[in-house]
Amino acid sequence: MRIVADENIPLLGAFCGGLGTLERVDGRSLSRDQLLDADVLLVRSVTRVDETLLGGTPVSFVGTATIGTDHVDTEWLEARDIAFASAPGCNANSVVQYVLSVLSLFLQRNERRTLAGLTVGVIGAGNVGGSLVAVLSGLGVTVRVSDPPLQSSGANLPFAPISEVLACDVISLHTPLIRHGSHPTWHLLDRQRLAGLRGDQLLINSGRGDVVDNQALLARLQQPDAPLVALDVWENEPSPMPELLDRCWLATPHIAGYSLEGKSRGTEMIAHALHQWAGLPTTVSLDHLLPPPPVSRLVFTVQCTPVDALHRALMTCYDPRDDDARLRRVFAGASSDDQTAAPSFDRLRKEYPVRREPGSLKVSVEDVAGSEETARVLSRAGFRTDS
Question: Active-site positions?
Fold first, then answer.
């Protein structure tokens, strides 16, 4: 069996090395000629998988180590009897971590010492958005959700009209990219909706870049009373508009889901599907492959309030300002028609430093009166706490 795989899928040798020949490729520049004798194709979101790429090749199995599948023409694969597997939910914890870290920086910026009274609007409540809603609700945040398809299915979530969701203190986007149908999400936040955002709000997009009209967003950010914006995903990746990047409060290179656990879970999920398709057992477990985290334990004293402790723990695991600084260095001085920064955008993702999720860190809280709330907040955010 010949397996062609994106070079940015981690631990693939450990999971699939025994299945046959494994060839690593640049997923963004992958061509049909590289697949003329391939049996299996494993990709990430930068590769468009359709008839143009696969037509006339012997590929019989396609896997994407990602939650989203809008880069794959699944109908064409099904019509050709090509097996397909994705990794739904693999990096949900990682994206939730990203949002919580950005949210914590927002609280610090506004000198808010409590989560009480904070409202967060979540647009799209699937694997990632649904996990975020659960975590935020557990932290005592008031959450409002917009997801018409999910609402019509009878799901039990705090649904609200999108106008109310867009009025929250923080708005977090987690929809798939849908261009047609009853509930399209392409440019869901258009010029009109962006015009209604206030200067005291924060907009976070760690879902799909095209859900926000980036040209309209740039225009809005050049106007008075503009909201704060944190973008991890962009239209026209890997060439976001430098002018928009300059106006963002936080800007990162599509890495919200790039924790080591998140990426590795995606590998594990498609590897299991590939083994099942090949009729072979899976003998490798992710638990045995992850290295120890760089920091494994934190101890908080009574001097730390719950929100302070949460902020310090989140920043120990992941501070998005580091990614922001790296991305800005790449695009410093670039213009909108400058394509030289695009390879650097991809390089930031390819060479992304190891980042661990809250579950890798154990936290202890000094056993004094009132410490139960700090321990509860940290536990709800995904950290392991002493019982």
Answer: 208, 237, 254
